[in-house]
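Let's study my pick:
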Amino acid sequence: MQVEGDKSAFPAKANWPVFLQKTAFALGCLLLGAAGISWIAANWEYATAFQKLAGVQVLLVALVLAACWLAAGRRNMGSLPSVLALDLAAVVTGGLLALVGQIYQTGADPWQLFFLWMALLIPWLLARPGLFLGLLCACLANVAAALYLGVFGLGMFGAIFGDTPAGGGLLLAGLNILLLAAWESSAGRLGDRWRIGPRALLAATGSWLLAAQLAALDARFGPWHVMALGWLLAGVAYFVYARRRPDLAMVALAGLTAFTLFAVALLSSIETEVTLLGIVLALTVVAGWGIRRLLHLWRAGRPSNDAASGKVTAGPDEPLPWFISLFRLVTMAFTAALLMAYVFITLNITVEAAWIAGLAVSVIGIALLRARPGGLAHEAGLVLGAAGIFMSVGGLFALDELAAVARSGMILVFGLVMYGLAGNAVLRFLCAFTVLAALLILGWPGGDAFLGLLDGGRPITAFMPAYSRLWWLAMAAVLAWAIGQRPRRRGLVPLAWALTCLVQLLAWGAPAPAMFGLSLAWDQAPEITLLWVACAALPVCVLAAVLWRAPGLPPAFRLAAPAALAIASIGWMGAPGVSMALLWLVLARSFGSRSLLAFAVLSLLAYLSRFYYMLDSTLLQKSLVLALTGGWLVLACLALRHALKPAGTPGGRALGGSGLPMARTVAGVLAGLLLILAVVNVGIWQRERILATGRTVVLALAPVDPRSLMQGDYMALRFELANQIREALRDDSAPAASAINEQRGGFMVLRPDSNGVWRLASLRANRSDEGDDGAAQDSVLLEFRLRNNDVRIVTDAWFFPEGHARLYEPARYGEIRVGDKGTGLLRRMLDQDLQPLGLPSLGSDPVRGLTPS
């Protein structure tokens, strides 16, 4: 799509040395952070608890000191190396907290981890404000608040919103509004030149409002009430960002939120086919008005505009800002889907016959587009055209009586004609993406085998079609992007976007054994290894070609930069998602496309998240690959910086700043470090004291086996006593039951049986309460909590090293150390004979690496 508007912050004439330095350093830090998360999650069995905790804390101290040293050398805490070092330290802080929970099996509520992480980062955010720290704290605040509300409800806010999921969504939307206000008041110090923070927070506000509206379909606050609140907020956002603080992207996001809430409210009141048609018309009118308003505001702010003449129409190949294209794409696709539903219901047609109705709808849509370039008729033509594309392609795809080749040919012809006649960039993108996706599936060997692309446990040869099509589509995307930059070929840009999205989706689904699967793949299918090399070489070749044509670059730089990327590509060979994201990054900088740059960054982050869950290689292997490639990129950046230093390469502007003197900023960062170390080590000391002096309790359990994102492999635990406690608490008339239910937790009095397994004697609401059980010396008070309609005793998970689930399959009991205040820590798993389970090489306490006393 042509989605480039104001490019003042991102010139097309790239300063390649500065860009590659910043990109290599940022990507290296990102990969190193991902490597640390993977290493923590792997729970490496050959490192003791002390080694893990000490090593991560040493790394944290080193990063913070490096950030301060780099800042002192440049006398600027906003320099890129200093900022990235501190950002990486913020990620390591979260990993350290997760590591403590993993080692000591604390069983703390997840919201506590995220809230503590956020709280510990606030001193750094105040001393050295930055974009990443601000976004991370905002994200942690959202996650912590959502998890907290899921456990404790709305509390005093329940009287206003009702203690329901809808009320929680409204409260979280309010939280993001407050965060948005705080961000805007500190925008100058956060270094957010592209205004990523405000847009992300406004999008989060709209998302929580939509979640509240969906939850309110049968709640006290109905969907129309939520819509009214959302429209009020959208009106305020329009006033602020169209008049007071101009930002049309924020206006578009507010408008998109208002449109979505309006659509859901209308759909909640649907009764007949006539009502559905009225909804389609109403949404078309609202979307058309929104587009016209956005176009008017956009042109009014351009140096050369048609505002004086009142023109708001756009030529078919006129580049539009990304936010206008996004608004049009969402509203058009949503309304077209409803129109399709209306046609299917009223005409009572089958899917196989839908292509006939689709052709008729497409003809009407194209006629409206070409007859009336602007206005409501134009938007109606877009909706009809989109509905026609969906119906025609879907209907032809479903014609099973025809051969796949015949259906592919018909779809291709329809797509070419529709693409040529559409004129509008968004409709062309939708047409190209739909047609290409249909052709991709129809041409897939084995037919339905495409649907099993994400299935695990398949031989590597089964993914040959994915890798081959990935490479060819990526080559086509590069050509489409290159040709589409010519003034008379701008109509190919929507095709380039469609190819780019398809390539990234294929890369998402393909397995990623990385370098550890190269030898096996070469033995089984050498052609797959060659395709891996070809995919990894694409961004290298494109970068070399771009640098070769760029004027004024030293010859050594033209060779060294692609060579450094080629060496790094060895690490993610077989992981095409990284290579493709880097390909879009190079193309984005070459063509000055901020939209493609944002897509590349989001694609890389999404793929790394997907990469974590891929089972084609172990977490330790992933950690090693990510660490090696990340470290190499950082070293390459430093070498490039040193080589270009005599040439006076500019270092770029500062990325935000606190406005405080340098000494105070460094002091604030160091004080934040000391706070983190103090909180973490006090917690470690408290838990070590419980393990050393607490009483030993053995409880029967029943485990299962999933995986946790930040903490690795674990068994989900369910203690037998939980069933007894649940039964006892069902009767509110029982002693202490009402108080325990109200405060969501209490204490159980335990006594051992003749086999050494501890049984429930009674329940108490508070530790100081006296019961009929007395204060016998053989009894122990152990705290429990009520969470998600279940009873949690100490913890609901036992974390073990990756790949060692079989060692804990015989687990029948859990050994717990209980402190004086009733706090319990799960120490180890026991088999049916009460013998400890674990790795023989580390004694009977494999996670801590200590021999139990």
